[in-house]
Specification:
The structure is a single chain. By secondary structure, the protein is of the alpha+beta class. It has one domain: Gyrase A, domain 2 (2-Layer Sandwich). The chain has two helices and four strands.
Length: 76
């Protein structure tokens, strides 16, 4: 699924095979976020991961959010 803009945030929903795979994916996303010091809101419901990107300090989506979204997409 592609990123969508929902309520002023970039949102992506990703489904994995099971909870273990979803958790591994979240850990990969977390490593990218730590490298960039830019952290998404993350929700895990069994095999479904919802990511929300927006810059809290700007109150909007910024270039940093788009850059992190591209890096997350590169994870596969």
């Amino acid at each position: 699924m592609a990123w969508e803009t929902v309520d002023g945030k970039l949102v992506k929903v990703v489904q994995k095979a099971d909870f273990k795979a979803a958790l591994a994916y979240v850990n990969q996303v977390g490593a990218l976020a730590e490298e960039r010091d830019h952290h998404p809101d993350i929700e895990i419901v069994w095999n479904t991961v919802t990511l929300r990107l927006w810059s809290h300090n700007a109150g909007a989506v910024t270039d940093a959010d788009h850059a992190l979204a591209q890096a997350i997409d590169a994870l596969g």
